[in-house]
Design a protein that fits this description.
It is a single chain. This protein has ten helices and nine strands. It is rod-shaped. Helix 3 packs parallel to helix 5 and helix 6 packs across helix 9. Helix content is 53%, strand content 13%. The protein is α+β, with helices and mostly antiparallel strands. Strands 5-6-7-9-8 form a five-stranded mixed sheet, covered by helices on one side.
């Protein structure tokens, strides 16, 4: 590392020496020359009525012998210092400032000086783009100081043009610095936005996983706890009931482990992997939910209104999770023996209501995250949600989940199949049979006689 730094210093020192040497060799070609022409009769301006050169005087004229190529040499020499822009911007600014003064000492023409200044200001743009504001401002001030000093100490032409030169030099340097600095700020803003978006995406994913695990585990553990308590109480007097409770615990545990395995597999799965994962639960899995709830001692009466239709994956999953969380709350908190679940397929939405006739402790404001999670799920799909105690007692949860594009849009679903081509019926004289079941669709769940289609 020390050897590398020493080598960089030697390289930069060599570049500075070569640059200043070339400037010193180029400057004499830009020298101004004065020619004296004797005028025995003088030079009189009849328009102004004044003698410009009195009789016997000498007319002094200033000329430059340098051509356009020679006048552009100081600007071209700036290329030698380009490797220093990334390593030592302040050294670059100081050396170029000295070079401007060296070129001005021979009273070089103004166009040569401005060409050199523009070349240096162009190099100021990447300095302001790559370095912090404090460093780039120092570099800009060094370049500006060198330019103003060169023009002020060795003015090219009449001195009354000095204010104009100062303004032009300042504007050129400020424009170059602002161009680089604004580009740097814009790029930094884009980087910050990308970082914020990535952070937000991670937070959203963590919230989604937390909701999934909460909905999955809270329901299963609640049922397991109730079944275990009941089995513990009747194991001595009613072995058959205890065995039934243990069987329910086993089934619920296996189902929960299977869902956890699917979730963990999805988390570990590489996005380029072709390993299939099990589909997420949906409304077609309500029969399992009703069965597990029945084992816990609560009869869930499911009522479906309208024809079951294909739903987008996020809508189907959200509907199932809302019903699952609501039924879990009934089992754990309400003390009710029955609850009614209503799923209505509307024109462009799915409406869900879960009502019970318990004592409604949910309305007293618990500290759990069940209602918060349901409300978040509904808000993510731009639906409406309400959860409040019923007037006659109990609790009511209702949600409306809009279906993007309505049910005229065909969605692929792992839980409900759809007609591959619903518009192929070209017989205009025969009305469409909207009541026939969709090909491959699974029948509505019928877990117990209390379920009414």
């Amino acid at each position: 590392m020390e050897t590398t730094r020493r080598g960089q210093w030697l390289t930069d020192s060599l570049l500075v020496a070569v640059y200043l040497g070339l400037i010193a060799l180029t400057a004499p070609y830009l020298r101004e020359y004065h020619t004296a022409t004797p005028l025995p009769d003088g030079l009189y301006n009849y328009q102004l009525n004044v003698w410009i050169v009195p009789r016997g005087g000498v007319l002094v004229d200033t000329i430059y012998r340098a051509n356009g190529w020679q006048r552009s040499l100081p600007a071209l020499c700036t290329v030698i210092l380009l490797p220093m822009l990334r390593r030592r911007p302040l050294v670059f600014a100081a050396v170029t400032s000295v070079a401007q003064v060296l070129v001005a000492t021979v009273h070089s023409p103004g166009d040569a000086r401005y060409t050199m200044l523009i070349a240096i200001d162009i190099c100021l743009v990447p300095i302001a783009l790559a370095w912090r504001r404090r460093t780039s401002v120092k570099a800009a001030l060094l370049i500006l100081t060198g330019g103003i000093t060169a023009f002020a100490a060795f003015p090219p032409g009449a001195s009354d043009l000095m204010p104009t030169h100062v303004v032009v030099i300042t504007l050129l340097t400020m424009v170059a610095w602002l161009l680089g600095s604004s580009t740097r700020e814009r790029r930094a803003g884009v980087v910050r936005q990308r970082a914020d978006a990535a952070t937000q995406a991670v937070a959203n994913e963590r919230l989604r996983i937390a909701r999934e695990l909460h909905d999955m585990i809270a329901h299963s553990i609640g049922i397991i706890a109730i079944q275990a308590g009941m089995g513990n109480r009747v194991i001595g007097t009613q072995p058959a009931e205890a065995q039934k409770a243990l069987r329910a615990i086993e089934e619920t545990s296996r189902d929960t482990l299977s869902q956890l395995r699917r979730t963990l597999t999805a988390l570990r799965q590489d996005e380029n992997s072709d390993t299939p994962t099990d589909p997420a639960p949906g409304l077609a899995d309500l029969d399992k939910l009703v069965a597990s709830t029945k084992h816990a001692g609560v009869l869930a009466i499911v009522e479906q209104i309208g024809m079951p239709r294909p739903l987008p994956g996020e809508i189907d999953l959200a509907a199932y999770r809302i019903i699952q969380e609501s039924v879990t709350n009934v089992v754990r908190h309400s003390g009710a023996r029955t609850c009614r679940v209503r799923v209505e397929f509307q024109e462009s939405a799915v409406s869900i209501t879960v009502a019970d006739d318990g004592h409604g402790v949910l309305g007293s404001g618990g500290t759990g995250f069940g209602l918060v999670g349901m409300r978040e799920r509904v808000s993510l799909v731009h639906g409406t949600f309400s959860a409040e105690p019923r007037v006659g007692g109990g609790f009511l949860v209702s949600a409306t989940l809009p279906v993007p594009g309505g049910f005229e849009t065909t969605y692929t679903s792992s839980t409900i199949a759809h007609d591959p081509d619903p518009d192929t019926d070209t017989d205009t004289d025969r009305p469409r049979d909207h009541d026939r079941p969709l090909p491959g669709a699974r029948p509505a769940p019928d877990p117990n006689p209390a379920v009414t289609p």
